[in-house]
Amino acid sequence: MAATADPLAVREQVRAFALGLPGAVEEFPWGQSVVKVNKKIFVFLGAEEGAGPPGITVKLTAEEAHAHAMAAPGARPTGYGLGRAGWVTVPLGDGAPPVDLLRDWVEESYRTIAPKRLSAQLDAG
């Protein structure tokens, strides 16, 4: 059985990936890390330390990706009505998806939120 990755290390890898996307900036509304593009959030990273394991929240509107994310251990539709719009919260504790898959979901969320000109930079790069 593979060793479980450190949830904070996984969170940091996902954060670094998100901040590397064109036009991405980190802000701290509500004392929690979010990454935005064009003033719109595309990934919630939460607080570094707090109640419960770290997790990420992404917007997945493609049915297959959404279903895949919802199948992760502990995953749930995001609260405050965001789940109805495709937002999924995925804990980074035991059984969390691999970092590469989390990055794919962050990229999909980015593409959903980002202006087309910025998404096009990903395809060109």
UniProtKB/TrEMBL annotation:
InterPro entries named in the record: YjbR-like_sf, YjbR/MT2646/Rv2570-like
Keywords: DNA-binding
Organism, scientific name: Streptomyces pactum
Entries under Pfam families matching the protein: YjbR
Lineage of source species: Bacteria, Bacillati, Actinomycetota, Actinomycetes, Kitasatosporales
The protein's name: MmcQ/YjbR family DNA-binding protein
Single GO molecular function: DNA binding
